[in-house]
Automatic annotation (TrEMBL):
Residues 5-47 form the HTH lacI-type domain. This is HTH lacI-type domain-containing protein. Coiled coil: none annotated. Keywords: DNA-binding, Transcription, Transcription regulation. InterPro entries: HTH_LacI, LacI/GalR-like_sensor, Lambda_DNA-bd_dom_sf, Peripla_BP_I. PANTHER family: HTH-TYPE TRANSCRIPTIONAL REGULATOR GALS, LACI-RELATED TRANSCRIPTIONAL REPRESSOR. SMART domains: HTH_LACI. It comes from [Clostridium] citroniae WAL-19142. It holds the Pfam family LacI. One of its GO terms (molecular function) is DNA-binding transcription factor activity. Gene3D superfamilies: 3.40.50.2300, lambda repressor-like DNA-binding domains.
Length: 341
């Protein structure tokens, strides 16, 4: 006779909700195959279910997605990363793979994750490298698993990479301000270092040099790339009543929108007094007054391309190392004023 186990006890053992266990036991829809397998395999292990009942444990191949947070001020629960993950999830599902997601902070113990990555069911690894430094990424290079980096590149590591063309994005944004007649263009730069922002700074400076314009270091303000951080720091800057440029390029939309709020509270009109452009094209850009002109980053497509390249490596054992750059496109709204010469 099979042993019986209560749903709540089984749920406690597995770290899931009793309602999820109940849905599996009653063969209800809306439960992933991986969760269903987890519950039924545990019941077989405990002697509460016989494989003769018609359930045969199946091997389910999966792709592992590591979301790495060094300081968490860039990688977070934002539309940017939710759209990226959505692209990854949809591509994995359509290709017959389950997606496993793990969040790591700097210094996290990898011992609990490495066995899963080394398991035969794990066919590939995606690493969100936005906040990674070289040393952080290097930890994963010796795993012997097909791997693709997202959102940051390291020349010293032989890993395929999907990145934003940050220099193109910043250059195009700066050029838009120049074409609108602005010659005194300040820079709202992230106070947190990541490769993306360093490349955007290079793109901004390069476009100013190409146009023969002065790089106004006195108007380069470093702001924490969070809503509260950038807002409060911009308020502090404005409290000293500095002379403002006629326009700002911002490293991303969060910095741009937070600075806009502080500027408006100080009495500056956007764009009549100061024009602003950002990068990312987050949904809240359209909700601002005025709506923010920005560079659109195809976040969903980044996720799709990452899975596509990973599957190429899984299926062909490709030894080629590729870096794929995703171009951005200008989204014109109402935060830039045309200056008449």
């Amino acid at each position: 006779m099979n042993k019986t186990i209560k749903a709540k006890d089984l749920a406690h053992l597995l770290g899931i909700s009793p309602s999820t266990v109940s849905m599996v036991l009653n063969n209800k829809p809306g439960i992933s195959e991986s969760t269903r397998k987890l519950v039924l395999d545990k019941m077989i292990e405990l002697g509460s279910l016989s494989p003769a009942y018609g359930y045969k444990p199946q091997t389910i191949d999966f792709i592992y997605f590591v979301i790495f947070k060094k300081h968490g001020k860039v990688v977070g629960d934002t539309p940017f990363f939710s759209q990226l993950i959505e692209g990854i999830e949809q591509s994995c599902k359509s290709s017959g793979y389950n997606l496993q997601i793990a969040y790591f902070n700097e210094g996290s113990d990898l011992s609990t994750t490495l066995p899963l990555i080394h398991s035969k069911e794990c066919k590939g690894l995606l690493l969100l490298a936005t906040e990674m430094a070289l040393a952080d990424a290097s930890v994963f290079t010796s795993l012997g698993c097909p791997t693709v980096l997202l959102d940051s590149a390291f020349n010293e590591i032989a890993l395929d990479t999907i990145v934003i063309n940050n220099k193109q994005a910043a250059g195009c944004a700066t050029k838009q301000l120049i074409h609108s007649g602005h010659t005194n263009i300040g820079y709202l730069h992230s106070a947190c270092h990541i490769n993306n922002f360093s490349e955007r700074k290079d793109g901004y400076h390069r476009e100013l040099r190409r146009s023969g314009l002065h790089i106004p270091t006195e108007h380069e303000y470093k702001l924490t790339p969070t809503v509260d951080g950038a807002y409060s720091e911009m308020k502090e800057i404005l409290s000293h009543d500095p002379v403002m440029p006629t326009a700002f390029f911002a490293d991303n939309d969060i910095i741009a929108l937070s600075a806009m709020r502080a500027l408006k509270e100080k009495g500056y009109r956007i764009p009549e007094d100061i024009s602003i452009i950002g990068i990312d094209d987050m949904p809240m850009c359209e909700l601002m007054d005025p709506p923010l002109t920005t560079m659109h980053v195809p976040k969903h497509q980044m996720g799709v391309q990452a899975v596509k390249r990973l599957l190429e490596k899984i299926n062909s054992n490709s030894r080629e190392i590729l870096t794929i750059e995703i171009r951005t496109s200008l989204v014109e709204r109402q935060s830039i004023r045309t200056v008449k010469g």
